[in-house]
Amino acid sequence: MKRFFHGxxxxxxxxxxxxxxxxxxxxxxLDPGKAPSWPDSFATRLEALAIxxxxxxxxxxxxxxxxxxxxxxxxxxxxxxxSKITAERVRxxxxxxxxxxxxxxxxxxxxxxxxxxxxxxxxxxxxxxxDNWYVPGRLTADMNRQLDTTDISFGRVxxxxxxxxxTLSATLLWRPLPEGWEMAPRxxxxxxxxxxxxxxxxxxxxxxxxxxxxxxxxxxETYTSEVLDFPAPGGPD
Length: 237
What we know:
The structure is a single chain. The two termini are 32 Å apart. A hairpin with a 5-residue loop joins β6 and β7. The chain is α+β, with helices and mostly antiparallel strands. α1 (9-21) crosses α4 (99-105). The chain is elongated and about 60 Å long. The longest helix is centred in the first third of the chain and has 19 residues, at 42-60. Helix content is 27%, strand content 23%. It is built from 6 helices and 7 strands. The chain has a single domain, classed as Chorismate lyase-like (Chorismate lyase), CATH 3.40.1410. Strands 1-5-6-7-4-3-2 form a 7-stranded antiparallel beta sheet, sandwiched between helices. Residues 1-29 form the signal peptide. Keywords: Signal.
C-alpha cells in the first residue's frame, strides 16, 4: 500500500491514532458475486488505476465525502437518475474514543465523544463504510437529534457548519498495476480473464473542522469495489 497524502508530523501522529482504533477494519464484507466484472487486460488495469486516482483526487479536494459520492454516483450511473447517497447505520459495534481520538478532536477526558458507523449507499450499491467519532457539544441540538434518530449521512447533517476537511492519510488498498509497472514489460493475461478486485479499494482518514478551525469529527472511510461497478471503459453500456 502507498500513502498518497504526506501530511505534517502532527498529521502522521493523528493518522496513527486512527489506525490503532480502527485496526479491526470494516464490519462487513462484500458478497464476492457483487464485485464489478471487468475484463482483465493491461488497458483495463491502467483504466482502473486512473479512475481510482480520479476518485481519490475528488475526495481529497472536497470537504464532504457524501457530496463527492453523490456526484460519483450520478456521473457513473450507479443508481437511477436523481438518486442521492443514503446512509445505513451499523449499530451495536460502538468503539469508544481513546486518548488518540480525543487528542485529534482536542476533547478533554470528561467531554462526551459520540460514535457513529454508516455504510454510504448509491441505490443498492454500498460505496463506502465510515467510522466517525464526533463531539456532540460542538454541533447544534437539531444536528445531534438527526444523528441520534435518523440514518441521514453525517456530511449532510453538518453541512450548515461550512466545515473544512483535513486528510490525514489516503491509501490505495488495491493496486491494479504493481509499483514500477511503467518500466516493466506488460504482464501476460489469459484471454477472457476477469479482473479480480478486492472488496475494499481505498481508505481515507480525516478530521472535520468548523469554520473557526475547531475539530469536531474524526473519520476513517473505506471505499468498496462497488465504486467501479459500471461497464469497463470502452465496453458496452
